[in-house]
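Hello,

Our lab assistant flagged a job as stuck in the queue for most of the afternoon. It eventually completed. Since we weren't sure the result was trustworthy after the delay, we are filing this so someone can double-check. Below is the sequence as submitted and the structure that was eventually returned. Let us know if re-running is recommended.
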Amino acid sequence: MSSSSSSISYTYAKEICNQVLRLDKSIRFAGIANNMGTLIAYKLREGVVPLLNEEELQNDIMKAVLRMKTREDYESKLGDVIYTFALYKKVKRASIPLDHPDLAVLTVSFDMASDQDSIIMDKILPVLKQGKLTEEASEA
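-- returned structure --
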């Protein structure tokens, strides 16, 4: 049963990555990790040169899942995490927790000129909500 469940999760995750990438031309990367921190599906915008190699990307995603798990300790007081954000000198990155039994986090990177907050709140979260992967953002 677990193998069919994981293949369904992979196919679903791949489709979500494809959908997210189509939402805005400033989105460089969309990737989904499972609860173990393993990157199970991702998509790069056509023509984008990745800043991290495969091993670095996997390592970074695992740490993003761990960081997201540590934030759960404070959600009872602060409210649920909608997304976390990091501004680097070369790229903007966000991690969005997923409400799914197998999938933990959607990580998205953006071009520097992007308005990532409106893209996340107005484009990405509605797609995730439609796919039942996140709670209503307006509850925040």
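-- support follow-up --
The delay was a queue issue, not a problem with the job. The result is valid. The longest strand covers residues 27-34. Residues 2-23 form the longest helix (22 residues).
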